[in-house]
Amino acid sequence: MDCAQVEWGVRWFLLILAASAFAQPAAKLWWSFTPLRPVTGSIDGHVRAGLVKKQLVPNPRADARTLSRRLHFDLTGLPPTEAEAQLFLADPNVEKLVDRLLASRQFGERWARHWLDVARYGEDDFHGTAPHPYANAWRYRDWVVGALNDDMPYDVFVKAQIAGDLLPNRERYLGGLGLFGLGPWYYGISQPPQARADERHDRVDMVTRGFLGITAACARCHDHKYDPISQRDYYALAGVFASTAYKEYPLAAAAEVDRYQARQKKIAAQEKTIAAFVEKQREQLAEILSFRIADLMMGTGAVDADLTKRWQAYLAKPDEDQPFRAGWDKTRDRAAAEAFGALVRQVAEEKRALDAENAKLVAKAAPPPTKRRKEILPGNYDSEADFNPGADIPTESLERDRYTLWRKMFSGDTALLRVSKIDDHLSGEWKRHLDTLRAELASLKKTSPAAYPFLHGVAEHEEPIDIELNLRGNPERLGPKIPRQFLTALGGAALGQGSGRLQLAEAVVAHPLAARVMANRIWEHLLGHGVVRTPSNYGLMGERPANPELLEYLAARFVALQWSPKALIREIVLSETYQASSANTGAGEKVDPSNRLFWRAERRRMDAESMRDAILAVSGELDCTVGGESAELDDRNLRRTVYARVGRYQQNETLALFDVPSSSASAEHRAATNVPLQRLYFLNSDFIKRRAKALGGRITSVERAYELLFQRAPSAREKERGEQFLREASKAEYAQVLLSANEFLYVD
To answer: Which residue among 408, 423, 582, 643 has its CA within the 20 to 30 Å range from the CA of 746?
Structure first.
């Protein structure tokens, strides 16, 4: 049997399996959709039961040093200090250590970063060719940190992020609305119907994959190929977000907000006036300079110095975009230059005539004024009004080569006839007028109230709607309207009150999938991989749990513990399963090489944040300030990495190198790559060299170095080699070697 036959066989098997799944009643549809089963016992009991079936035994308990290091990194993302390590070795009371770490403020910083991956947290979006920053985005991150430190029940945590504005005592929960208030927003990246549909798609994906482990977003264009999710289900859920509006929640008095907004309107109007005046002068000057093209080409006469340089660069090589310069390129004489200038002026006149005709076409084709359902995005971007009005109306254009010539001469800041500094060419009343406008703008800005703080969030749209099914996912081809409701296979509850967000939040946390998904995520962060290894896909194409009874126990316990993340984490880390050694055994490697049954602990490389934070901690430079505005992750930033600015427009290169996922979509877990550039980073980066220099200043001996980095004493061989190295090189170089050691970068 060849590969093609095998592939077709697999496809037919999946199709038959999917068809049989669809044919079942909802209650029997799939294991993950069923109610939680009451499961007794303990974590270790269920793990051992799975091991017994494979005739395996669990690893013995890890030593005290390994446990101390593992617990510190898993619960706080930081290494133990010398004092903490020595205290635990003297009194290896795991329960006492766990309680102290869970109560520390560093716990929320560590576990918030886990959630922010799922929440696709970012602090800007694409807006044309530049980023659109969200100045107060960090407040959502700080809300997550605080919620986890306060041990907010997970069901409340979920509801706060979907519908915090609709909960009692909403002031406590408004910060959570940043989950959707921070986008992603797609502004004018495509036609408004498409861009808004893409935004709703992101929200549907976040709710279903992030909270429920269901890939409902796959049903945007057609019924889900494998799971019992129809296209109607998708648009029933998308209607909730079509009925939700972006909203900013001020953290200042109403009078202060009004003053600031009134002043900003004046500033914006003044900036618009200045921009219009400057643009008009530049356009008029470009027309005038078109009569000097021959001088610019021949290099004669006094013309703007910047334009002269542009023309010299332009004439130095052939123009491959249009053919009209051919005569000049052959003769390079005055007559050819005059002819080229005349052609440019003729093309400019043709463009002006076409623009006038096109304006009439747009005005004639424009629909009559009607009441429009407004959709306002961050920055007061009006979805319809700000997206190039009239762009969809057919208009006339210059022939391609003539348009290319016009654009090269007149369009854009680097056009050959547009001056960079209009002030150099203005005088008299024109110059006085521009100076006056600018002085007024400067005064408005100088006396403006400071920007008030606010929370990015969402609220009920003043016009909640059910949306039409998009045929083949195309928002321009509309089918029947679909009433808002929850996924049919998960109960199909109606979501018609207001936007439906509060009902949606209640339906999400009421379904067993919410507990299964989060309990599995918590387990994954502590044990290295989940009981279900596809933590955001519990459907037919996701992996089945390696130990179903263990997953049911964890989910049921999570609910029984009042949805307390800290309580579930505490129970897991106090188990023998978590505290087991990571050593490989022959039997275990043979029967369960991927450790799906958790017979050993996983040896894991630190994630990017823990790695950077640990380096700063051992060098003695870590700034432990909690919360506050984000900052660029440069060599001067010594705060914990969770407080670094997170860009969707441009991701930080170092974090991306060490597998931090893009914040444009929900990430179920992180990849673990091992590439040469990662090792070169430790060899060549300025950050590592500066930290190594600082660490070198703390190293008084080889023993001191090992205590700082590895929380142990060096062996005789390590001590001998370290002392020999220090005789031949600097302490900073020795520190750099130790910082790049696997023992430092990996947690057993």
So the answer is: 643
